[in-house]
Amino acid sequence: MEDAAGFHSWFAGRSAAHRYRITPTPLHDLDGWYTDSATGDVRHRSGRFFSIEGLRFEPAAPDAPAWTQPIIRQPETGILGVLLKRFDGVPHLLMQAKMEPGNITTLQLSPTVQATFSNYTRVHRGAAVRYIDHFLTPGAADRVHYDALQSEQGSWFLGKRNRNIVVETTADVPVHEDFCWVPRPVMAELLRVDNLVNMDSRTVLAGLPDEVTGDGSGEAPLPGRASEQPLHDTATLLHWFTGAKMRHRSERTTIPLRRVGGWHRDDRRGEIAHEAGRYFRIIGVDVEADSREVPSWSQPMLAPAGRGVIAFVSKEIRGERHLLVQARAEAGTFDVAEIGPSVQCNPGNLAESARRPPYLDAVLAARPEQVLFDTVHSEEGGRFYHAENRYLVVDGTDIPLDVPEDYTWMTVRQLTRAGRIGNLVDVEARTLLACVRTLPGHGASR
């Protein structure tokens, strides 16, 4: 397919070709799962996959209160891989139409490979993961462009990482009916469609090589373009980020789920929820999917309370587009803090007396002409049920250069370089970066 219309026709056909059923089920009725009688933790009887445990988080700041919460613990490192091939000189990405039980639209566009360690080692005794060899053992026709261990949602996962890989191939690749080659220009269009390109695709797309995106976000400037003039050089940014990590040093301890305060287990409904109805619930689902390696299974899922807001404030500085980023510490972050977007929160979780996060109100009040990107994207549908965020890029011409100490300005090129390093840029910022890199002229003067 060479255009968006061709893609949507193919995608609709794949949706009609399969049968899916997701049934809410009490946690205590999930096949293969049990609640540990001593701790209250929810675990799989095989000891694999993942578990729901408790976490206590104590921030470093003396005036910041400690809290406890349920959290997903998944020690396994999965693979998120995109296979790239050029047809008539145009880069194409091999993507799949994949069902996940938590997807609002059930079927979304996934990477070539999206598999946990248990999946691709076939713990579930299901079918083999297609195309996995290009990423585990690249052949002579394969060239690895990008390979990094990247974090996932630090509010919901404890130290969770996946291996993000982009491999270009010149080999002949048989294409299964649930897969298609998407031209890179068409992918840029699809990233503007609500709840279509899944989170696993977006995090890998953020690491695409520069010659594929054509955005000049690598070391060399675009032809005919002056050298980059960032507000801060690399040494200054590293100094800022290291200082933020020192300020945000915290203590976190796994605790039995039954000792998590402010949360309760509703045995009638078979779920775990916060006493104020905020944040999220832990629910159960039974799943039937004839397109998956295993046609049916049961599992717990994290169901967020409401839609979040993820945004970059963008500003032209010295003739170069900059993004406002923050050093953000979350309970499950792998290494203290990561670089996040200007705004990253769920406004519905804020108590009436709570201080509003910096720049949230400016983003929400942006005039239509200020909004450069505005799309609702789903989060990882394999663990999160109907989780979605509104992703925005807002022109912040009126935002002062002076920002709070946990914030700084970076060019798109600087953030792209940082995003190719594992555990440095959080998954929300990487998702938005993948979208930013599709904007026309985003790295140059406007």
TrEMBL record:
This is NDP-hexose 2,3-dehydratase. It comes from Streptomyces vietnamensis. Residues 6-208, 235-436 form the dTDP-4-dehydro-6-deoxy-alpha-D-glucopyranose 2,3-dehydratase domain. Residues 207-228 are annotated as: Disordered. Pfam families: Hexose_dehydrat (PF03559). It comes from the Bacteria. InterPro entries: EvaA-like, EvaA-like_sf. One of its GO terms (molecular function) is lyase activity.
